[in-house]
Amino acid sequence: MTNPFKYVFRVRYAECDPQGVVFNGRYIEYVDVAFTEYIRAIFGGYEALLEQGLDMQVVNLNVAWKNSARADDVLVASVSTNKIGNTSISLGVSLVRHADNTPIANIDVVYVMLDSKTYNKVSVPGTVREKLLSGAPDQVMNHAGVS
């Protein structure tokens, strides 16, 4: 996808460690929020999946850090669906600094589709698969208030 969904946000001081950089565990939170906004852009919100009796759970997450982010940096998370298997969904998230496009991290995350009541794995339904493969190109959720 040439123009993936983008989530724009500002690093808060409390998210940084004593070295003044974003604490490594916070990147997983960033991915979770970006994923939630991606789902909102595609389906209208996570509740839309739950109403269909579906849920998702992370089964694998890998972060490749490129540079450090610091307090008050504005970051852009570009989110795209990389692959959909029978029961799994693989997303890619690229984090860059808004001011200068410096790469911060690349994150690959795999979710498994679940029945929302039993939490057993289920196949990704065709309509969900189609929407995820289409993604949310050119859509931007800007929580940082920058242009």
Q: What does the model show?
A:
It is a single chain. By secondary structure, the protein is α+β, with helices and mostly antiparallel strands. The chain has a single domain, classed as Roll (Thiol Ester Dehydrase, Chain A), CATH 3.10.129. It contains three helices and six strands. It has a six-stranded mixed β-sheet with strand order 2-5-4-3-1-6. A hairpin with a 3-residue loop joins strand 3 and strand 4. It is globular and about 45 Å long. The model has no long low-confidence stretch (mean pLDDT 96).
Radius of gyration based on Cα positions: 16 Å
CATH topology: Thiol Ester Dehydrase, Chain A
CATH class: Alpha Beta
Molecular shape: globular
Brief characterization of the structure:
The chain has helices at residues 26-43, 46-51, 126-134, and strands at residues 5-10, 54-65, 74-84, 88-97, 103-115, 140-142. With 147 residues, the chain is α+β, with helices and mostly antiparallel strands. It has one domain: Roll (Thiol Ester Dehydrase, Chain A), CATH 3.10.129.10.
Break the fold down into its secondary structure elements and pairings.
Elements: E1 5-10, H1 26-43, H2 46-51, E2 54-65, E3 74-84, E4 88-97, E5 103-115, H3 126-134, E6 140-142
Parallel strand pairs: 1-6
Antiparallel strand pairs: 1-3, 2-5, 3-4, 4-5
